[in-house]
Amino acid sequence: MVRGAGKMPSQRQLRVAEEVRHILAKIIQRGELHDPELADVAVTVSEVRISRDLKNATAFVTPLGSGEVDTLVKAMARAASFIRQRVSQELNLRYVPAISFEADRSYDSADRISALLKSSA
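User: That's the sequence. What structure does it adopt?
Assistant: Structure tokens below.
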């Protein structure tokens, strides 16, 4: 059995992940990302998951309203090094996690469940 497999995140992981989420939201809100594909897109950072050693983080993003999620993820990935540098300025940790971005599909799942519930009623 792999040690640590299936364990819940520690309080420290949760705190750091939430702090990274807040910093990402501030960076996006202030318009610090100058990618043309992010120009008129409101971005929601719904969750950040961080590894046990705090060296890798995955941010789940989705465009608010209209927008192509795959294009958003690619644009965020292009800005990852800039974002990591900005996070390092605001986060007081020995090592700043490498941040990768993934599409948050939970809203799509919630819509499908809602539609199924409405159709069965």
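The radius of gyration is 16 Å.
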